[in-house]
Write a structure and sequence with these properties.
five-stranded mixed β-sheet; two-stranded antiparallel ribbon; 21 strands; globular
Length: 365
């Protein structure tokens, strides 16, 4: 990520600052002018606040805590440099400019917006240690390339591929910070056993062979296609491959409790837990409501945080949920999709149609 500065004078006068100090300055500008929040850590206790010892089960709860308790000029301007000992994990979920309410998906775009639109000073040509994360989907996905990961730790390790600040001279891998690179180099050891497929070295023949089998020969991919022998890490990816590439008959899994069908076991299991077993593991910290997925909880939290991150480009009204904005836009498009079967009158909102049916035709629908 390259940050843009307001003027060359600012950069020259602070040329003696370390990379960490420059990153700290950039972070303070971002935090003071947005709803982004830093994450200290993620472990079995949840997501840790970068300004106090508290941890929260969901990133939504952490964001609300930060915006209410720590989002002040005094705290942000004098935040501890320890935050930059490794990397800064920045939650940019529903990233919004606090100065003009413009929404952004990418941190880079927001930084350029602060410089070009609001004349904010930011350092250029630094090795950024600010990693963006978004939690707007049920799955953990990279905020830059949308690759999906099973754990936050794996996602964080993946970010090294986007922030190649410090390359390893032994194997060519790159890392966000010099400290991470040094830890990586130590793991190379004095390896005398070099991989025949890449430049990695290992301290024993067993480790070299295990690496080659796992990384280059695909022996860890147990699910082999019955037609072309290609291997897959996931059984259902193999089935999907056979259907799309080889024309195998699609899998149809029927729910035993209703008439719905699915093409993989994961989707069927999710349906049964959500719709029949009524599983609700995600509790709202502000009220008694419970939700099946973290994404549903995040949408619900807009009621409590009061954040209105979705603005209509036509009339500039703001809403807490994307779905609410989408429904609102039907007013401007005159999309009267709800029709009265008796008199033909159309309505933009379903609630308006129901009220009409009840008051004009005596029907409760």
């Amino acid at each position: 990520m390259k940050f843009i500065s307001k003027s060359k004078t600012t950069v020259r006068s602070n040329s003696d600052l370390s990379e960490a100090k420059k990153n700290q300055h950039n972070l303070s500008i971002i935090l003071l002018n947005s709803n982004a929040n830093p994450i200290r850590c993620k472990d079995s206790f949840g997501y840790g606040c970068a300004f106090c010892p508290k941890q929260f089960p969901q990133p939504t709860n952490l964001k609300k805590h930060f915006l209410e308790e720590h989002n002040s000029d005094r705290l942000i301007k004098y935040m501890s440099s320890k935050l930059f000992e490794n990397v800064v994990k920045l939650d940019i979920t529903y990233l919004c400019c606090a100065l003009c309410d413009t929404d952004f998906l990418q941190l880079d775009d927001f930084v350029h917006h602060l410089k070009n639109g609001h004349d904010k000073d930011l350092y250029i040509d630094i090795k950024s240690q600010i990693l963006p994360f978004r939690f707007d989907t049920p799955e953990l996905k990279c905020a830059i390339c949308s690759t999906e990961f099973a754990t936050f730790k794996l996602l964080q390790e993946h970010m090294n591929t986007h922030f190649r600040n410090y390359p390893c001279e032994i194997c060519g891998g790159s890392y966000v910070t010099e400290r991470l690179l040094q830890g990586h180099v130590k793991r190379h050891g004095n390896g005398e056993y070099k991989c025949t497929q890449c430049d990695k070295t290992f301290t024993s023949e067993h480790k070299r062979r295990e690496h080659e089998h796992r990384t280059h020969l695909g022996f860890n991919k147990r699910n082999k296609c019955q037609i072309c022998n290609e291997r897959f890490l996931d059984y259902w990816k193999k089935i999907d491959h056979m259907v799309k590439v080889h024309g195998a008959p699609p899998v149809v899994l029927k729910c035993q409790a209703c008439e719905r069908t699915f093409n993989n076991q994961r989707a069927l299991s999710r349906h049964k837990k959500k719709d029949h077993l009524l599983e609700r593991r995600h509790n709202c910290s502000e009220c008694e409501m419970k939700f099946f997925s973290s994404s549903c909880l995040q949408k619900h939290m807009a009621k409590h945080t009061g954040l209105r991150e979705y603005m209509c480009d036509v009339c500039h009204k703001s809403y807490g949920r994307k779905n609410t904005l989408r429904e609102h836009m039907r007013i401007h498009a005159d999309d009267r999709r709800f029709k009265c079967e008796h008199c033909g009158q159309g309505f933009v909102q379903k609630c308006s149609w129901r009220g009409h049916m009840r008051s004009k035709h005596g029907e409760n629908v």
